[in-house]
Amino acid sequence: MKIHQALFPLDWDLDSASALNGSNPEIFRGLRSQISKMDVKMSSLSSELSSVISEQALVSTSDPHPTDVAIHRNPVHKVNFLSVPMGALVDPTNTSPTLGSKIRSPARAFLWLAKVPQAVVRAPQPPVSALSAWQEVGDCWCSAPRGGSTQLSVVLGRDIVAEELVVEHTPWGSSLEPEAAPRTIELWARFKVSPHKTAVVAKHTPEAKPGRGGFFAMFGEATVSPEPSTARVPSSRETGLGGFLIPGIGSLHKLIMDLLRRSNPNEPESAYSDDPILGQNYYRIGKIEYDVNSPDNVQTFKLNTIVDVSTIRVDKVVFRVTSNWGAKHTCIYRFKLHGHI
């Protein structure tokens, strides 16, 4: 009963129904506000449920019986929103440079004299290979960390609610350099609101500048100096994506930060927002650790924060690898992102 009252604070009676028939705009606006608040509460409950599941998973790690690998060999099929045929594109702006194996001049001369076709010489794989299926060792994208991390930025083909991250890597024993596997991975997301929402922007009205007319026009124009404006200059937060207002909820930034605080109670806000590299429009919704020693080389992780509100979707993501298993560079075989539109 308490859960019902929390999620459905309005119990409509016959009088309310008759009022709706009267098409009272105030009631419709109130109903719309209540629906928006219900979306936030459902998203909050989903986030809390994910935290409980994560805690339960930590307790279950003491189970001496390992997870059956067959579960991962026959996974439940879900839509991969990082698939290139689904419209996903690599954004080079926030993507780290590719690690290239440069061919030295003597070797290049030998290949030219031997008339070895360039197609035979394997070129470094581009970042898009981290979004594509792989078959052999080396079918991956490698990059040397800069500033202690490696980044892969992707523009999604569809606006989604992000829920799960899948990390694929070659098994430990099949690679000569298994230490290049990613270890700690952060997922940063950019959110968007429906197009009909408007941003909070303080508009400045220019002062009128009357001029002289008639006979006095020959002496030139005279202008009136405007009084110093008392209008508040909008902050970069308000003019950015975070400044969008959602009816009955408030700003996009406030909503997301409320959910992030619940998902990350032991971390400062600077750990999941206002990133110095990505800027104010990105929020960290996931932080996972890939285990290269696991018998299963394909591992699925539930995201820490799932923002499931009807008017909000993710349109761009950035994967940031902050550590690997000991190599000087990091290689990514494939990332997958599950969720719903």
Describe this structure in words.
- This protein has 7 helices and 11 strands.
- It has 341 residues and is α+β, with helices and mostly antiparallel strands.
- The chain has a single domain, classed as Jelly Rolls, CATH 2.60.120.
- A hairpin with a 3-residue loop joins β5 and β6.
- The radius of gyration is 27 Å and the shape is elongated.
Summarize the structure in short.
The chain has 341 residues and is an alpha+beta fold. It has 7 helices and 11 strands.
Key words describing this protein structure:
single chain, 341 residues, alpha+beta, Jelly Rolls, seven-stranded antiparallel beta sheet, two-stranded antiparallel ribbon, 7 helices, SUN_dom
- The helix count comes to 7
Instruction: Give the topology string: H per helix, E per strand.
Output: HHHHEHEEEHEEHEEEEE
Q: What is the helix content?
A: 10-25%
Overall 3D shape? elongated
Going by CATH, what is the homologous superfamily? Answer: Galactose-binding domain-like
Q: Which fold name corresponds to the CATH topology?
A: Jelly Rolls
Poorly predicted spans: 2-14, 57-74, 196-213, 215-226
CATH architecture descriptor:
Sandwich
Mean pLDDT: 76
Number of spatially distinct domains: 1
Share in β-strands? 15-25%
Q: Which secondary-structure class do the elements indicate?
A: alpha+beta
**Rg over C-alpha atoms, rounded to the nearest angstrom:** 27 Å
**What is the CATH class?**
Mainly Beta
Oligomer: single chain
Number of strands: 11
Sheet with the most strands, sense and barrel status: 7 strands, antiparallel
Protein name: SUN domain-containing protein
GO molecular function, one term: protein-membrane adaptor activity
Subcellular location: Membrane
Keywords: Membrane, Transmembrane, Transmembrane helix
